[in-house]
Amino acid sequence: MGLNLENALGVHPAALKVRAERTKLLASNLANESTPGYQARDLDFRASLDQALANDGFEAALQFGGSDPKYRVPSRPSQDGNTVELGVEQAAFSQNTADFQASLTFVNMKIKGLKAAITGNI
């Protein structure tokens, strides 16, 4: 009887990968806040996670390329065509960072629990 990491760690490795991809998009949005014509993009976390899990779980999450990013619709369009709204992007980036940290904490707790079970220190 072997240990199946996919079952042991659950959804969290895939969630970490999706959160990392979303962080890249949000950071790009923030970096291009003053670039004329730049279109802000974001991932639908739930759809991206479902896609990663549907494509064979843990292994697919490690190779995850992300679902297609969607363009963000601004509440106040700028005259230069840039759709980045600094407050919206900063809030999304902060929330994504907190969610990433939560998933990382869950993975660390699972690994510590598995280590304790393997070494008999329960």
TrEMBL record:
Keywords: Bacterial flagellum, Cell projection, Cilium, Flagellum. Coiled coil: none annotated. The keyword Signal does not apply. Its main location: other. Signal peptide: none annotated. It is found in: Bacterial flagellum basal body. The basal body constitutes a major portion of the flagellar organelle and consists of a number of rings mounted on a central rod. Structural component of flagellum, the bacterial motility apparatus. Part of the rod structure of flagellar basal body. Belongs to the flagella basal body rod proteins family. This is Flagellar basal body rod protein FlgB.
